[in-house]
Amino acid sequence: MGHTEAILNTRCEALNKRGIPCAFRVAIRATPDGPRCRSHDPARRAELVAAAQAGARKAQVARGDAERVALAAAGWPLAHGGAPANPDEAAAVATWAMRAVAAGLLPPKIARELAVLATAALRSWGAGKIAARMAELEGIIAGIQANERRRK
């Protein structure tokens, strides 16, 4: 029997990921490993993976376009059009996102992601301020210690 010839009145004999027999009964083909459905036919595996990847890329592009359109329609609040560069801009973006969701201009999912990013940015800016203050205090302490050594 040829590889592309359908077998009637039988089922796929492959095991699924859980180790349970597939039992699919439509479009069964003879393979060297026995009767297989489209999903378990080793000759078609690369074709199915490529089709799944192409579909995922297409969906990703569609979602990305929808998100960009939503952001553009809602009117990005920063004049420079980029990401927030300081805590005041992050607060402006967060406020804008809340208003845009309330007005129905921005999907809540996008607003949630903006909030996560703004929170991460605020934390990093806070850590940077703490590090700068620590360096400043270390300089002050070093100056005091140097003055004390000179006095002795």
Task: Lay out the secondary structure.
Elements: E1 29-31, E2 34-36, H1 45-74, H2 87-102, H3 108-151
Antiparallel strand pairs: 1-2
Helix pairs in contact: 2-3
Brief account:
This protein has 152 residues and is mainly alpha-helical. 59% of the residues lie in helices and 4% in strands. The chain has two domains: 1-64, no CATH class; 75-151.
How would you portray this structure in words?
By secondary structure, the protein is mostly helical. It has 2 domains: 64 residues, no CATH class; 77 residues. Helices cover 59% and strands 4% of the residues. It is built from 3 helices and 2 strands; from the N terminus they run ββααα. It has a two-stranded antiparallel sheet with strand order 1-2. Strand 1 and strand 2 form a beta hairpin. Helix 2 packs antiparallel against helix 3. The longest helix has 44 residues. It is elongated and about 100 Å long. The mean pLDDT is 81.
For the sheet with most strands, the description reads: 2 strands, antiparallel
Number of helices: 3
Question: Any idea what the radius of gyration is?
Answer: 30 Å
Distance between the termini: 101 Å
Helix content: 55-70%
Return the string of H and E elements. Answer: EEHHH
| Unreliable residue stretches | none
How many individual domains? 2
Please give the oligomerization state of what you see. Answer: single chain
Number of strands: 2
